[in-house]
Amino acid sequence: MILEAQLKERSNNQCELCSATGTLKVYELPFTPATIKDDAIYVCEKCLAQLEKRDELDENHWQCLTTSMWSEVPAVQVVSWRMLNRLRNASWASEQLDMLYLDDDNLAWAKASGDHENETTVDLHKDAHGARLENGDTVVLTKSLDVKGTTLNAKMGTVVKNIRLVPDNTEQIEGKIEGQMIVILTKYVRKHNA
Fold it and tell me: Which residue ranges does the record assign to the PhnA protein N-terminal proteobacterial domain (predicted)?
């Protein structure tokens, strides 16, 4: 893998996708063949969150790909191809994708992610009203719930502080009620705004 100092120098201390400055991080491309050593790019936090599907795609933000896709760095080209594919329903992204040329090896690397075949939506934990939930949030129950395996009944209106998101299931969170950690369905909570 390429070192962070080399990425800083190569990128001129800017995001290699959108040219933002500030807090930048190393993003190692997933699904990189073992033969490729230059498998990382330097990106801003906004790009990183959307690359890792931790945030919804902001189509306007990704207009930057119309410039970054022409980078001479194969890893930047591959990420540009992958992101353009995730945005392919937008006419501008589809047009750029038609213009982007990758050699056979880099195209195979880009396709390894499966972004060109998958649905482009990002699954996020959301409450009953569509508000995005995050680790550490406080929620309120919108329905009385019987907790399986116990005599505990969590009443509607119960406040659950410091929730944890269940990583592999966007319909579930974990929280403590009466000192007991339980799994709660997101459709039965609303985010508490203090």
Answer: 6-52
